[in-house]
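Note to self: keep these together.
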Amino acid sequence: MIRNVQLSDAKRIAEIYNPYIKDTIITFEEELVTEKDIAERIKYITAKNFPYIVYEENGDVVGYAYLSNWRKRSAYDITLETSVYIDEKAQAKGLGTILYAELINKAREINIHSLIGVISLPNPISQKLHEKFNFELVGNFKESGLKFNKLIDVEFWQLIL
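Structure:
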């Protein structure tokens, strides 16, 4: 079941997100997040009326997705960045696809012009997800991030709605 996020989801979202911080290059965050950190992010995103959704299985949040500012200047408000994260134990069930489809629908509902997916490499699963939704690869920034003492390329994928 997909529903809008609630502040009470913050602890569970932090639990889903922290392994990505600790063990992967999928996010460039390096410090684990707390329930309070996530609650503040939820408040910020929902105050802007951007979609923030969760996927529940048997009453437990197992994935989430949201749209956020791609860039800060108001001229960019027609273009938002996408994020989707799935609990380690719930991966490979198609939940990312389900959440992404709903996120794109919600972006259309609020008249967003384009979406940007930012992918640190390698990440073939995310690349395939973006291809599935007809995002176009529009840029590759070589060695633009550093995590775990490795230089990391970052791709930008865009979907014009």
